[in-house]
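Entry for adenosine-5'-diphosphate complex. Fields follow.
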Amino acid sequence: MSNIAKAEDVVVSYRTTKGSLRALDGADLAVRAGETLAVVGESGSGKSTLGMSFGRVLPGEAKHEAGRIEVDGTDVFAIDAETLRGLRRDKLGFVFQNPMTALDPTMRVGRQVARAMPGRASDAEITALLKRAELSDPARVMRAYPHELSGGMAQRVVIAIAIARGPQLLIADEPTASLDASIREKVMATLARLRDETGASLLVLSHDLRLMARHAGRVAVMYGGRVVEIGASAEVLQRPAHPYTRALLAAASGSERPGERLEPIPGTPPTLAGRCEACAFAPRCAYAQDRCRAQRPEPREVAGRQVTCHFAEDVLADAPISTEAPR
Ligand SMILES: Nc1ncnc2c1ncn2[C@@H]1O[C@H](COP(=O)(O)OP(=O)(O)O)[C@@H](O)[C@H]1O
Ligand SMILES: [Mg+2]
């Protein structure tokens, strides 16, 4: 299967008042043409930094230290500003967590949508695009200002803008996290439907394992700025090969009953100043041995997926997580 985009051994750090913080520590990820690929992991694992790297939309304090990102064969860190603008406009579409920050509060929705569309869009073309994002009253939405819309409607406007030029890759960073629980599923379904309809790929970054299990064909699990496990959702989420995936699943299944608190994974995620020369998860890992604290695990193929763990076979051999895996 061909890839529409890929990250290879990408290192990105942020300048902070406490020195350099390494957010991506050799991240690898290939997005296949036409797939929905979910990137999951706790807050701080590097999901947003990786997502932004694909469009080189990183903030000024971020520094690309090493590695390659390719979108449709173009090395995004090697091109000039003009080429980069063209690539973002023609090949990529972004949907972020908060639609209100993505929209201009002073401009009617119709005009903002028209500006994202090629050529001079007619009102009929604008409403048709809004309709594709499943806005039920597109003529009214077109005339509205962003603050007159609900969060769900505003996110659908952002989705319409993201698909306006038929991108090859849609990058959605926690697209439903700011929305009411009751509409998360619907907005995610719209994104998945549009991906299907347009033949684009959808890279969706989320900490909602349950939602991703329903919509993504493959899932990549991030920890410490690396992808530690990637494979078919059904396999990775039913029978994890990385201890961190296993811990995440156990934590997620604890929240099944309403009112019950999410079981946290003991310990805290790492903050890296430089390259991690061990397994970043070792301090929190139930499977860790001396080797994990001495030797950085490299990605390898185990049971049909890529996994970055010295003891993946042991993890796979263990009994499934007792509580029900997310549906
Ligand atoms: N603008 C920034 N300045 C400094 N550190 C940042 C910035 N953005 C993210 N980080 C740090 O980089 C790491 C990865 O963050 P991020 O990519 O946002 O992860 P995620 O999306 O998985 O929560 C975290 O340690 C985070 O605190
Ligand atoms: Mg994030």
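NOTE: The radius of gyration is 20 Å.
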